Amino acid sequence: MLYVLGRDLERTEHLARLVRVHFELSLDRSVHPERRFWANLLQLAGWPAPDAVVRDHAIAMVLGDPSGPSLRQTLESARRAAQAVRPSLSIEVWEQVNALYWRLSDAGWQGEPYTYLHQVELGTQLVAGLVDDTMAHDEAWHFVKLGKHLERAGNVTHLVTRKSRELAEAGEDPIAWASVLRSCASLEAFRLRYGVATGAQTVARFLLLDRMIPRSASYCLAAALTAVEGIDRRGGTSPPHRVLGRLAASFEHADPVEVGASPQRLAAHFDEQWADLHRALRSSYFQPSQLALELAGDQLSRHPQQQQQS
To answer: How many helices (DSSP H) and strands (DSSP E) are in the chain?
Structure first.
């Protein structure tokens, strides 16, 4: 459940930022039906997108539709996970998760989603800060961090590869690629490194491979590996450590030029290893439980005190 808490808080923040950035982008540009602008957003958010969809319908689906992977669903899942592991959390973390859930349940977004989405982003970021500053950095903390960083690595990789295909025919569209950076909260970090020359290859390399920014896939995989090492706490390496180590190394040692030109190949390798990694996580760390939330398609859960029993 600690893993699920970290994963779903990260997923909630990611969905909120995706919708906010696309909403702001739609105000700046003319959105033509043939561009499938909002349908593409639904696909990014994990929905089977229709051929065409209007703005308010798309936003309503991503934010609150109970039939799919909506923001409300992920926040509810995070709160249930927090309830299940309440003794492992600080009171500050629990109170903020609970308050965020009820505050957003009572709020409405219709017509002007910016304020609502901004509250979601700030609220989940506050929880992340409280996790780091008020919880002991023990096994429970490492599980929260593992869920967070694996979710973020998957989100960034998926976003970059989908946008690379979607924008391939548009050429070097600096506004569109700046929105990709904004969707990963990395626009300012990018400009400090590269200035305002925002292009497809540079953005892809930056978001997938740069080890200095906390939103890159490579950084997140390295952080997840550190979390696994903290969970294992003994000599040798566990199956998750071995699989995740190989995956992190494939990003660390990837050819930047090749990844910039075609990130799909690295993403395909990521997807292959992703399945192996979650099988390893299930076999090593998680056990069936009636309280379980979905973990990569299976109803599995694990409490910290069940870890590494000999």
So the answer is: 14, 2
Q: Letter for the amino acid at 297?
A: G
Closest CA to 98 of 114, 113, 86: 86
Query: Per-residue pLDDT tens for 82-116?
Result: 999 999 999 999 999 999 999 888 777 776 788 88
**Highest mean pLDDT range out of 39-48, 119-128, 191-200?**
119-128
Q: How many CB atoms lie within 10 A of CB 48?
A: 8
Residue 298 pairs in a beta bridge with: 295
Task: Report the alpha-carbon distance of residue 175 to residue 189 in Å, rounded.
Answer: 16
In the DSSP assignment, the letter for residue 287 is B
Any idea what DSSP says for residue 299?
A: E
- φ and ψ at residue 148, rounded to 5 degrees: -60, -50
Q: Where are the beta strands (DSSP E) in 220-305?
A: 293-295, 298-300
At a CB cut-off of 8 Å and minimum separation 6, what does 274 contact? 154, 247
Contact indicator for 180, 41 with CB cutoff of 8 Å: no
> 98, exposed or middle or buried, with CB in 10 Å at 0-12, 13-18, 19+?
middle
**Alpha helix (H) ranges present in 107-166?**
114-134, 139-166
CB atoms within 10 A of CB 204: 25
pLDDT at 250: 93
Q: Give Cα separations from 163 to 42, 175, 232 (angstroms).
A: 13, 13, 36
Beta-carbon count within 10 A of 101 CB: 19
Residue 29 DSSP code: S
The pLDDT value recorded for residue 195 is 83
Instruction: Supply the DSSP symbol for 85.
Output: T
Termini Cα distance of the chain: 21
CB-based contacts of 30, cutoff 8 Å, min separation 6: none
> Across the chain, what does the average pLDDT equal?
86
